[in-house]
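To fix ideas, we quote verbatim a fold written out as C-alpha cells:
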Amino acid sequence: MTPQRGYRAVFLGPMTALLAIVTLTPFLYGLYLSLTDTTPTAGTSDFVGMANFVALVGDPAFWRALRLTVLFTFFAVSIEVVVGLALAMTLATLRRAQHLLRALLLLPLAGTPVAVFYSWRIMLNPSYGVVDHLLGLAGIAPVPWLGHPTTAVVSLLVVDVWQWTPFVMVILYGGVVAIPAEVREAAEVDGARGLSMFRHVTLPMLLPYLGLALLFRTIDALKTFDSIAVLTSGGPGDATVTLNLLSYRQAITNLQFGKGAASAILLLVLAMVVGRVLVGSLYRVRDAR
C-alpha cells in the first residue's frame, strides 16, 4: 500500500464505517420488521415471511397510493425541469441584477420546510387565506384548495414546484454557464440561432446536468412526506395518500410496524429501480459524448 492510499484509509475509513453502520442498521431493522407482525399494543412480533407484502399487493389502498406517488413524481419533476431550465437560461443571459434575482429565486429553499408548508396552508384556507381573498377581489368564488381531491393534489403539486424548481435551476444554470463560448460562436457562424441553437448546441451539452437534476428530484419526489402531512394529512379522505404517507399511517397511526415497514421497503425498491434507470441513462450520455 502506498503512503497516499494509507492516508486515505486512515482518514476515510472511520467515517465510511460509521456511515455504513448508520445507514445499514435502520435498513436491516426495517427489513426485519417487514417480515414480522410486530404490533406494540398486542405485544406480538412473530415471523410471518412475505405475508405483509402479499397483504399490501392485495390492498386497493396500496395501489391508489402507488398510482398517486408515480403521477405526483412525474408531473412535479417534469414541471420543475422545464421551468428550472427556462429560469436557468434566462439568468444566464442577464447582465444586470443577475445575482439579486438568483438570490430571490432561491428563497423557497431557505425557509424551514414545516414552517413554509404551514404558511401555504394558511394562504390556501378558503375562509381567511390570501389566495381566495385575491380571487374574491376578482369576483371568483372561494375554492376549497385542500378540501377537494382534485384541487388538493394540484395544490400539493404547486407547492412542490414552487419549493424545488430553484434547486433544479441551480444545477442547470451551472450547465448553461459551463458551455464554452467558442462552441456558441462556432454554431452562430454556421447559422444557428434561437431554437436551432438550443436544439443542436445547448440541449445536448446540458444532458448530463438534466440527468443529474432528474435523478435527485425524482428520488426525492418519490418519498415526499412533509408537505403532504402538513397541508392535507392525506385528505380529503385518502385522496392524497402516497406510499410514504401510507407507510407512516400503518406504522405510527395504526401501530402495525410490520405492514408499515413492508410499505417502506416497496417504496425503497421503487426508488432503487427508478434510480438505476436514471443512472444508466447518465452513463449512456457520458459514453456518447
